[in-house]
Amino acid sequence: MEGVTIRRASLAGPDGRRVEQFLHANGLRMERGLEYTLVAEAGARIVATGSIAGPVLKCFATDEDVRGQGVMATLTTLLLEEEYRRGNWHTFVYTRPHNLNTFLSLGFQEVARVDRSVVLLESGPESVRDFVATLAARRTMAGGAVAAVVVNCNPFTLGHQRLLETAAGASDWLHVFVVREDLSAFPYDVRRTLVRRGTAHIPNMTVHDGGQYVISQATFPSYFTRDPAEQVEDHAALDATIFGRYIVPALCITHRYVGHEPHCPVTSVYNAIIRRELPGYGVSVLEIPRLELNGEPISASRVREAVRLGDWAAAESMVPPTTYDYLRSAEAEPIIERIREGRSCQ
Fold first, then answer.
1. What's the whole-model pTM score?
2. Range(s) for CATH 3.40.50.620 in the chain?
3. What is the model's pLDDT at position 183?
């Protein structure tokens, strides 16, 4: 590392363009949502970089002429110190396979990889095996038709309800994973509660916390930007691989249900990747037509728009009574206010 200095980069200033160009030269995009970035420089030239987004270390790149000199290890150590300062003790690394040995030497363990394009590793007191053990303890059966659905439910709509009713009706048991990341207008605890209230009439169903391993910033970061220019296919394939490798055997899943997505390109790509990847793990993927209202699919975004406009009749027509009761409650007022002010997430 002789002659190399490391400093924090401000992506909002001239550094941002330089980091973006360096990543591009190394076959990478500068992803959105980076919260903290370090650059290693030899003189005025960037020779390595790495960033943080939540508990995830990502956007690592190094010039070939400094590989093997410990630059990547030093960057990672400094980024981990920042993660610990923020209270993130369970951390992930999203990187290229050629960096694998560096992270293994720092105590990370591989979770999954997608061909030669991306590998996800983790470090900390928890692991994917702990998550799998928790799921296996809630297994209801080891035979028959066992289905799974992954939902965000921002908020829970009649469309979500129809999807889960359909999946449960065709299955001996249904496992529903609620995306945990709190990057939506409705917080995770609210979304999970609305799912449970809206499906109380479905007897053969278990609701699970999606945790860090089902559509999270670690496994599928582009889901939270909805930007088709991101590395959607790699992210989706990684999420599908983790689902097939760990969750399917833990719960003996035989079927995965998804809702047809006519508008969002990110979700459409994700569904296509799921259909491609999961049969390799013995899982049949079934796409269910979306429930429509006035010729348009019911969606959480339509509900949020109705809320933003104060059109409560429209909102009521697209959600179960349990969701509508919540929307009209005092508890929901801070969320409604954020939506009206345009400060809601996806």
1. 0.89
2. 136-340
3. 76
Q: Select from 242, 263, 257 the least CA-distant residue to 131.
A: 242
CA neighbor of 215 nearest in space, from 249, 188, 264, 178:
178
Residue with tokens 């991306």: 118
243 burial level (CB within 10 Å; 0-12, 13-18, 19+) = buried
Number of neighbouring beta carbons within 10 Å of residue 222: 22
Fold of 136-340: Rossmann fold (3.40.50)
Our CA dihedral for 77, 242, 172, 158, rounded to 10 degrees, sits at 80
Beta strand 91-95 pairing with 56-62: parallel
How confident is the model at residue 230, as a pLDDT? 60
For the chain, list residues with pLDDT below 50.
344-346
CB 60 within 8 A of CB 72: yes
117: nearest Cα among 100, 105, 103: 100
Classify residue 92 by burial, with Cβ atoms within 10 Å: 0-12, 13-18, 19+.
buried
Closest alpha carbon to 108 in 287, 117, 116, 99: 99
pLDDT, residue 344, reads: 46
The encoded tokens of residue 189 equal 């605890």
Return the CATH superfamily for domain 4-126: Gcn5-related N-acetyltransferase (GNAT) (3.40.630.30)
Q: What is the rounded distance in angstroms from the CA atom of residue 45 to the CA atom of residue 48?
A: 9
